[in-house]
Specification:
Strand content: 35-45%
Oligomer: single chain
Largest sheet: 6 strands, antiparallel
Helix content: under 10%
Length: 259
């Protein structure tokens, strides 16, 4: 009898991708939030590799940072999965935080979908975000498994195939942070002094950050304290007092597969 091989894939999609208006307005000192609404693109295609052949998506565990360091609203969201076609990736779905306007070829790339119900949110006791679990919590939630067969020899590495995932919001989701520089920080430093919200409530080590007024990513986080963010290199752009620092990667998704 064959024995199933279980494995997990962690995905941290980039919601901003060089357009910070997808998650927040550009006013200072009090930036206007830009919450997602029902049927908005939550994030465009993000690629990951799986061992070659047909795979079974058995679970999805999601941790999502909420507005200003708090828990996220309990809203539905859906993951759509796709494959390459003759080596070509699916085209963009459109603008993040807006309805789908593109990727007319999606039916040819489509592998499957997974809907997570709002009532699957496990927010009890979690002060700085919300956790979700696939497969329960509402009559309309998807019950795994989702069986998918990627295009052969499409992976980045030998022996792996590539799957693409995108997300759609099922209600109001807000990714503002309330974290603000206390003074100007130039590109000659790797450190930003901040106040407002404690950045450790809104970001994780390795996350890519922006300010609400600039489409240039500042860099990735190396460490944090209650009033400080340190990057892995000097800032890629200058920041000003009272701009809001936002997270390109507020969702951590752990897909559980078997094969």
């Amino acid at each position: 009898m064959a024995t199933s091989k279980f494995f997990t894939v962690e995905v941290k999609p980039d919601m901003i991708k060089g357009d910070v208006s997808a998650v927040i307005g550009n006013q200072t000192p009090n930036a206007t939030d830009a919450p997602f609404t029902t049927d908005d693109i939550l994030f465009d295609w993000h690629a990951f590799d799986v061992p070659r052949g047909t795979v079974s998506l058995d679970s999805a565990q999601v941790f999502m940072h909420g507005e200003d360091g708090g828990a996220q609203g309990d809203k539905d969201f859906t993951f759509i999965f796709a494959k390459t076609l003759s080596g070509v990736a699916p085209g963009t779905l459109g603008t993040v935080n807006a309805a789908q306007t593109a990727c007319f070829e999606l039916p040819l790339h489509f592998l499957g979908a997974l809907k997570i119900e709002a009532t699957s949110a496990m927010s009890n006791g979690l002060a700085f975000g919300t956790a979700y679990n696939s497969g329960w919590g509402g009559a309309n939630a998807t019950k795994p498994p989702v069986i998918m067969t990627p295009e052969v020899i499409s992976g980045t590495n030998v022996g792996y195939d590539k799957i693409y995932v995108a997300g759609f919001a099922g209600g109001a989701l807000d990714f503002s942070t309330g974290v603000k520089p206390t003074a100007q920080a130039a590109t000659s430093t790797d450190t930003i002094a901040v106040d407002g919200q404690d950045p450790r409530k809104c970001f994780q080590i390795g996350d890519t950050i922006y300010t609400n007024t600039d489409d240039t990513a500042l860099g990735t986080i190396k460490s944090m304290g209650a009033n400080e963010i340190v990057l892995n290199a000097n800032l890629a752009a200058q920041v000003e007092d009272n701009e809001e620092i936002v997270n390109a990667n507020p969702m951590t998704i752990k897909f559980g597969f078997s094969q």
